[in-house]
Amino acid sequence: MSGFTAAAALLALIALVYGVVYGVSWLAGVTRSPLTAAPFTGGMPPAEHAVSRFHVRWYAITMLFLAFDMEMIFMYPWTRVVSAVGVSSVIEMFTFLGILLAGVAYAWREGAFRWT
Q: What predicted TM-score, i.e. pTM, was given to this entire model?
C-alpha cells in the first residue's frame, strides 16, 4: 500500500466515523429547536448583558490575581526539589517572592486596591 493510499483510507475512515457519530446524535437528539429559557441566575432576571463592560479597576485586580496564581504554580514543584537543590533554590524563590511583593507594593501605592 502506498503512502497516498494509506492517507486516503485513513481520511475515508475518519469521514465515516464522523458521519456515524453525527447521525447517531441527530437521531438520538431530544429536541431540535434551541432553548428559549434564560440561564438560571439565582431566580432573578439578568440585570445587564453578559458581555457588558467592566470597570477598569477589575483589570488591575485580575493581573494581581494572575501574578499570585503563577506564584503558586511555581511554588508547588519548588517544594518537591528544595531539599535536593539546596540553598540556591531558597534564594531564588525568595527573590521571586520579593519581586512579587514589590509589584503588590507598587499597586498599593498607585491605589489599585482602593475601590472608592
A: 0.48
